[in-house]
């Protein structure tokens, strides 16, 4: 007697892909989640600020565009950053991309773990910070996008 039941897949969390077009559709339909309490730049950095202290990283969208990250260049502790100026770079197997300061401030810490494991950004970009800083002017946060505006910007940039 034939059974109409389908044998369970070895890895049920990873659906089978029939073709490249199907994969593209599956990826485009996946809803990216950006933390609502963060602010974002159009250059794809995020900032998680609390009072005058903040952490800065790159967005999940940015790490997807870059691909496998292999090196991160960050400033020294004590460096003064100016809003919208480059403070370092992220290198992937595809390209090197500058990283820009979402706000002005003084670097108080860098994520030392990224010197030996830069790929951590690929696995969790939303919580992997590059540096921490003390903000010079918290009003600069008002110049940045909230999560909904950033998500709309990404959708527009990606042509959706």
Detailed description of the structure:
It is a single chain. The protein is α+β, with helices and mostly antiparallel strands. The chain has one domain: RNA polymerase II/Efflux pump adaptor protein, barrel-sandwich hybrid domain (OB fold (Dihydrolipoamide Acetyltransferase, E2P)). Helix content is 22%, strand content 28%. It is built from five helices and nine strands, in the order αβββαβββββααβα. The chain has helices at 20-29, 60-66, 113-116, 120-123, 147-157, and strands at 39-40, 45-50, 53-58, 69-73, 80-81, 86-92, 96-100, 105-110, 131-135. The strands form two sheets. The chain has a six-stranded antiparallel sheet. A hairpin with a 2-residue loop joins β2 and β3. The protein is globular. 31% of the residues are buried. Mean pLDDT is 85; it is low at 1-31.
